[in-house]
Write a structure and sequence with these properties.
about 300 residues, alpha/beta, single chain, 10 helices, Arginase, Chain A, two-stranded antiparallel sheet
């Protein structure tokens, strides 16, 4: 269905292509990982679907003051990493993100399943990690359930993240095992469950997350936005989403608050299967709004 045109109502997305050597505030990069997913997925179709969904929204914050993100920020689109899965794909992703991070304040990677977190955080030179996720992602092996463990244990030694600088927000009951919960505790990962988040509130939790993941003035934090932290009714296109998760407005507010931290240099949108979405496209639309919330957080710094 074609969208109406109005010169006074510009649409989000459609940003200019990235040019090597050019400075930008934010860069969008598709990283369509999917081959190692623990559940069948069409997540490789998601970067294109998110870009299409962005056009349903304007880049305008109501404030006050009113902010046009396209006027406040220079945003570029760096296309997609081709075949980002496997060892060669991981290295291509690391190299591409590193190139973008050298000239931008925030790299936003559009997944893809959660395995993209591993190469994107490495490419951005992250030394701190915040995840919004119902799951720990501390599994053994190589899959969409292992990126946090891999950043601690599998990355080259000088690229590994100290687990005491990892904060995991939204960890849900009945979505994890006792063994992986114990692994997180043994490693010193700060776990903020869904119940604790709701009890304390978004701003309080975000402040703590920035402090722990930041750790120092030289902080480079990667923010993993696993959309399956949201309630399943809001994200039917997330294979592992759980009934009772975050409301869409809670996820959006949390993303914006976390992205406002000056140490956040990269982020990913993960675990959305555009091919399994509801007919109204609600999961992909929420993922697109999370992209805009990341940009809003950046603009508000």
């Amino acid at each position: 269905m074609s969208l109406a045109h109005d010169d006074l109502w510009p649409r989000a997305g459609g940003w200019p292509s990235f040019v090597v050597g050019e400075r930008a505030d934010a860069a969008i990069l598709g990283v369509p990982t999917w081959r190692t997913s623990l559940s069948p997925t069409g997540a490789h179709a998601t970067p294109t679907a998110i870009r299409e969904a962005l056009a349903r929204y304007s880049p305008t914050l109501m404030g006050p003051p009113i902010v046009d993100l396209d006027a406040a920020l220079r945003i570029v689109d760096a296309g997609d990493v081709i075949e980002p899965d496997g060892d060669a794909g991981i290295e291509r992703t690391v190299a591409r993100v590193s190139e973008l991070a050298a000239g931008t304040d925030l790299v936003i990677a559009l997944g893809g399943d959660n395995s993209l977190t591993y190469p994107v955080a490495r490419g951005a030179g992250a030394n701190g990690l915040i995840t919004i996720d119902a799951h720990f992602d501390l599994r053994d092996g190589v899959s969409n359930g292992s990126p946090v463990r891999r950043l601690v244990e599998d990355a080259p030694v000088d690229e590994r993240i100290d687990p005491t600088r990892i904060v995991q927000i939204g960890i849900a009951d009945y979505a994890n095992s006792a063994a992986y919960a114990q692994r997180a505790a043994d490693w010193g990962i700060r776990v903020i469950t869904l119940d604790e988040l709701r009890r304390r509130g978004i701003e309080d939790v975000a402040d703590e997350a920035h402090e722990i993941a930041g750790g120092a003035a030289s902080a480079r934090i990667h923010l993993d936005v696993d959309v399956d932290a949201a309630d399943r009714s809001a994200v039917p296109g997330c294979p592992a989403s759980v009934p009772g998760g975050l409301a869409a407005f809670e996820l959006r507010a949390l993303v914006r608050s976390l992205a406002s931290g000056t140490g956040v240099v990269s982020a990913d949108i993960a675990e959305v299967d555009a091919t399994a979405d509801a007919p109204d496209g609600r999961t992909v639309r929420l993922a697109a709004l999370c992209v805009l919330e990341l940009l809003a957080g950046l603009a508000g710094r």
